[in-house]
Amino acid sequence: MSKKNKTIDVNGTEITVFVNKEHDFISLTDIAKYKTNEPSAVIGNWMRNRNTIEFLGIWETLYNPNFKPIEFEGFKKQAGLNAFTLSPKKWVENTNAIGMIVKSGRYGGTYAHKDIAFKFASWISVEFELYIVKEFQRLKEAEQKQLGWTAKRELAKINYRIHTNAINENLIPKHLSKQQISFVYANEADILNMALFGNTAKQWRDENPDKKGNIRDYANISQLVCLANLENLNAVFINDGMTQAERLEKLNQIAISQMQILLQEPGSNLLSEPNSNEYD
Questions:
Q1: Would you call 112 helix, strand, or coil by DSSP?
Q2: Is the model's pTM score more than 0.85?
Q3: CA-CA to 176 of 20 to 30 Å: which in 57, 73, 112, 228?
């Protein structure tokens, strides 16, 4: 499954959600499975309904400048007739609709923009629709929290490049081997780790053999903000010619001060606080 695909559990039914051009699309096929083992038939019955076609047409008119209104009117006139059938694929191909996507393959099926998906869910069951909306909102809230953490992590990475550039220009003689250079970088990274977390990368790995990644992957947002600041300051201290011992002591004092301020900010109780011995 694509990394962009996510699922929500709605009363035991797994519903797939994915992002297409910055819009959320929800699987109508999965929603239909709440009612039957033949989701295509349920979707087809829903699309035969005149009210459904009118809703789809109005939605496309509002959001799709390339929608074909003449083809839409043709479908609307036929809606309700005994011989009338309409599939999502036929709707998309004939009207140039963007509110539905038909995917093939292992994770294929019919997907629709959340506005349309919620409308379909209400046709299936009003109660089920409410549960879908609730779980979808929970998913979006979780994504927003993750987005905030990711932004801070990326900020730390950008500042790390500034930090390594200062190391390269001031601490690494040109004749060192690549292995020796890597050791200097790792050694300087551990200055920041010691100042903020109270451990080197190796000490953390030894104490957490079951965890993947490194110590910074498990940092909370406050620690990542502080780390970004420390990386900038350490670059300045290196350029100023301070010794490693002097920099470690100074950075540790700054880390303590900044973390005390950050953890006093509104909403900081949502973040995991550092261990009490991290700054000993």
A1: strand
A2: no
A3: 228
